[in-house]
Amino acid sequence: MSDKIVLHCSRGAPQKTTEFGGFCCPVAEGNPGCMQKGKAWLRYTSHPSRVSTAVKMKANLMLLLAPLVSAAPTIEHRQASQSIDKLFKAKGKDFYGAATDQGRLQAGKNAAIIEANFGQVTPENSMKWESINPRQGQYNWGQADYLVNWATERNKTIRGHTFVWHSQLAGWVNNLNNRDQLTKAIQDHISAVGGRYKGKIAHWDVINEMFNEDGSLRNSVFSRVLGEGFVKIAFDAARATDPSAKLYINDYNLDQPNYAKVTRGMVANVNKWLSQGIPIDGIGTQGHLQSGGGAGLAQTIKVLAATNVKEVAVTELDIQNSNNNDYVAVTRGCLEEPKCRSITVWGVRDQDSWRPQGNPLLFDSNYNAKANYNAIVQLLSQ
Questions:
Q1: Tens digit of pLDDT for each residue in 193-206?
Q2: Among all residues, which ones are annotated catalytic?
Q3: Residue 25 — very low, low, confident or very high, per pLDDT cuts 50/70/90?
Q4: H/E element, 354
Q5: pTM of the prediction?
Q6: Per-residue CA distances from 240 to 54, 106, 183, 363 (Å)
Q7: Rg of the chain over CA atoms, in angstroms?
């Protein structure tokens, strides 16, 4: 059988070249270029996304690519050379995870990439109130069950998202104007959803996005009817439902250490609520960043960790445009803060992001690991 190497070309099919005994993709933007026996990869990138091991290579080629050949089945499976989750855990952290849901897991290579490269999943939409409890007393468990079962079978940590949020909220909840009725609705919802997955979900975003940019309470049915009392109602219900789960308060724009939403909003209120005995275990900073925002988030991690919570996490990371240095800065920021336990990116590949225009994730549209992913690998390999 003749020697064969399969390159994953973005455009066109790979071709064997008799000129130098190698294999090339057509010359096109995004293609990985050529492989030549006894020499390095040429032209566009340093490595292709896949190297076939279906046949033997000649001795000189085997010597050149020995590290790749030995790892080839894993590379083909995960579309990346190393798992950032395993590397992150080797540094003493809990996980590097990704948001997903049933539709994503059943499409393309999402499931394979998450299984090989990430250690945790967050349901992108299936556990939000309007999705899982659209009408009073009615629960739609299908998509959430799928995600929980998929993750449990593969020993992936699960972050529940989210119990109480003003957005994507079931209409019947928005129409409650009575304190007792709204209190019971919160308690019943948390008891039903949290109870169904008790012991399977390690972290819950109990309350999501409750602060305005100036640090005041956001106007929502919860704050209008219950004031800030809904915080205690929700966290007490979550603790009673699943005592082993770590309970988080989660928000966006917690990206600059001196920003009012950070200082007057999250930091001041969380310390106050903890002093009142409200069982808040952690603060989640979502991390929906623009290019250049990584250093600010890294600094803010330390500010959030300086509160009296047990831990903090980056929960929904995506970074617009040129972002290699930003991903490295955020990852380093978490590494350097003992209370920062985990990072979750908000999706797998760029085109599936909720804001795809800036190519904000770690895998491209062809499920190839991008330079930002490899930059994280390099950092974690030090």
A1: 999 999 999 999 99
A2: 209, 316
A3: low
A4: none
A5: 0.80
A6: 54, 34, 15, 39
A7: 23
